[in-house]
Amino acid sequence: MFRALGCIGTATLGGIYYSSLILPASHTRYGAHMRAMWQVFFWG
Q: Residue 42 and which of 3, 7, 12, 28 are 20 to 30 A apart at CA?
């Protein structure tokens, strides 16, 4: 169950993270926020 949620979450967050990188307007603030959420998701 945990692994399934991890795969779904990784795919979803991966898409959001990638789209945040290619959005120049909100790159710095939103990108930093997504990086923090990414680390919390994996290490938290």
A: 28
